[in-house]
Specification:
Elements lengths: L1 H26 L6 H13 L3 E4 L6 H12 L3 E5 L6 H5 E7 L6 E7 L6 E5 L6 H4 L1 H8 L1 E4 L2 E4 L5 E6 L12 H4 L4 E4 L5 H11 L13 H12 L5 H12 L10 H6 E3 L3 H17 L7 H12 L4 E2 L1 H5 L4 H11 L3 H5 L1
Parallel strand pairs: 1-8, 1-9, 2-5, 5-8
Antiparallel strand pairs: 3-4, 6-7, 10-11
Helix pairs in contact: 1-2, 2-12, 10-12, 12-13, 13-15
Length: 338
């Protein structure tokens, strides 16, 4: 038993070391935004996908490009536009000639979705038909084209960006597709020192070299390790009550949810909370999940899974306000017992 504990401790320590090394490598290119970088890495090691929202020029594209370099993974960037078609990202069948026989036939030409790290840039500028082409890939890590099923090489990670301004000519993501994203991260402006450092790095002619620190096999192994982290029944119950508290008119709904929310979180929200909490536990050197680990994941894991009603939108509320109220209202089992 002691030997097993030592093995677990070694695995957790190795995961922390890999995470911190990867974070440090990204910091060579990305100034500030520590919470955003950590959130993207949590999505990666949880096997999920990330949606980043922020104004242009904040380094969203640079972040995933740097991440792909540090991970030695195939990277592709798709610029979403209103005229982009599903075949442009999935691929299409083309007529090809066999050089040996001279016969012609259809051959599938893979699109940019067949990569390990995919940047869906300004995803809300494409039509819903094209947006939905991502659904199967994000959920099943596979693509079906022309009746043929193609598996995507693991690890498969999608990071989508959207612009909160210039909403003319955009197509808001459907709730079903938003639910496929593990985290929604809000990218804000950096501070005074961050901006000075950005200028130093980008206008001096020197460009940091990003070295690969992990490969795909190691990432998949980390994703399997995350799932084995222990979460006690009373912590699971806390996760369940947090999610149920977002359901209006439910047994655990808070007054703010009943007043401002039309639809609450799906079960995927509970899954995201649990996996993210497991990663936070390991980063803290533990192999078991605490209440605080869960709380740290609530906003990014659930802010895109709540749909406000007319009153909530009319008052200009954000889902973060509602979720903070849920966090304050839903007590852990320990405090409830007290």
């Amino acid at each position: 038993m002691a030997g097993a504990d030592a093995t677990v401790e070694a695995q957790v320590a190795e995961f922390r070391k890999d995470f911190e090394t990867l974070r440090a490598e990204i910091a060579k290119m990305i100034v500030g935004h520590t919470e955003i970088v950590d959130g993207v890495l949590v999505c990666l090691f949880a096997g999920g996908h990330a949606l980043l929202e922020g104004v242009p020029g904040l380094g969203k594209t640079l972040l995933i490009r740097t991440l792909s370099q540090a991970l030695s993974l195939d990277f592709s960037r798709i610029q979403f536009t209103p005229d982009l078609m599903p075949a442009d990202i999935i691929g299409t069948n083309l007529i090809a000639e066999d050089p040996a026989t001279g016969r012609r036939g259809f051959q599938f030409q893979k699109g940019p979705l067949f990569s390990q790290m995919v940047l869906a840039d300004e995803i809300n500028r494409a039509t819903p038909k094209t947006q939905s082409a991502l659904l199967e890939a994000m959920q099943e890590q596979s693509v079906t084209a022309g009746g043929t099923h193609y598996r995507l090489e693991p690890p498969f990670f999608v990071m989508a960006t959207q612009n909160p301004i210039e909403q003319e000519g955009t197509y808001p993501l459907p709730e079903a597709q938003l639910d496929r994203f593990f985290y929604k991260l809000i990218v804000g402006y950096g501070g005074r020192d961050d901006l000075k450092l950005i200028l130093d790095r980008t206008t001096s002619g020197e460009r940091p070299q990003i070295r690969p620190v992990m490969d795909g096999a190691r990432i998949v192994a980390c994703q399997q390790l995350v799932k084995r982290v222990v979460i006690a029944p009373h912590v699971v119950d806390y996760v369940v009550r947090l999610v149920l508290a977002t359901h209006p008119n439910g047994a655990f709904a808070t007054p703010s949810v009943n007043k401002y929310v039309r639809w609450g979180s799906s079960p995927r929200g509970a899954q995201a909370l649990t996996l993210a909490a497991k990663i936070h536990a390991m980063l803290d050197g533990r192999y078991n999940v605490s209440f605080d680990d869960v709380k740290r994941a609530v906003l990014p894991a659930m802010r895109h899974r709540l749909l406000l009603n007319f009153e909530g939108e009319a008052e200009g509320l954000s889902t973060d306000v509602v979720l903070n109220d849920v966090l304050a209202s839903v007590r852990t089992q320990e405090s409830a017992a007290a």
